[in-house]
């Protein structure tokens, strides 16, 4: 029993040292009063007979497995090296693919044939439903008021870019953009409307 108590004391000290290194307060550690140690020792004797002839003087500080052969170490190092190489190759391939996509996008917008006519989004036609049936409504940009308008049957209401994006990407029920309409940004007659000077209404 004395050896068990001494062994338990050593374990408790190492547990306290490890807990202190992790920042846990010592008050959270279990109590090791003489009475509790005696109770634990007596229960150990009753339920699990002590079969060792003596207690090891030092408890290994590292968890099992504590021993590894040269062959096992060589296999482990080989696996780790191969996994690292595979991860590095995958990472490099991804980086190259990302760079390739960025270059493609940059070249697309710098192509002379693609920048001859400046354009802007003018309207979006949204569809809700199935391929053979459903409902349509449109978002049209009001250039005079610089805002989006929603045309849904006989209802014409003010809208926003956020609502347009939500409907266009299927974020509202099962609706999504069906058609995008762009106009020549230089063609002012497509943007500017003629108004009656007296009433202010478009002609």
Q: Can you walk me through this structure?
A:
This protein is of the alpha+beta class and 203 residues long. The chain has three domains: 2-47; 70-116; 119-190, no CATH class. The chain is built from four helices and five strands. The protein has a five-stranded antiparallel β-sheet with strand order 4-3-2-1-5, with helices on one face. The termini are far apart. Residues 16-38 are annotated as: Disordered. Keywords: Hydrolase, Protease, Thiol protease, Ubl conjugation pathway. It is an enzyme of class 3 (hydrolase). Pfam families: UCH.
Summarize the structure.
The chain is an alpha+beta fold and 203 residues long. It is built from four helices and five strands.
Strand content: 15-25%
Distance between the termini: 106 Å
Q: Kindly provide the radius of gyration, computed on alpha-carbon positions and rounded to a whole number of angstroms.
A: 38 Å
The helicity comes to: 40-55%
- Main beta-sheet strand count, sense and barrel state: 5 strands, antiparallel
- Structural class, judged by helices and strands? alpha+beta
Unreliable runs: 21-50
Query: Outline, from the CA principal axes?
Result: elongated
Residue-averaged pLDDT, rounded? 72
Whole-number total of structural domains: 3
Q: Strand tally, please?
A: 5
Side by side, the strands of the main sheet go: 4-3-2-1-5
The ordered H/E elements are HHHEEEEHE
Number of helices: 4
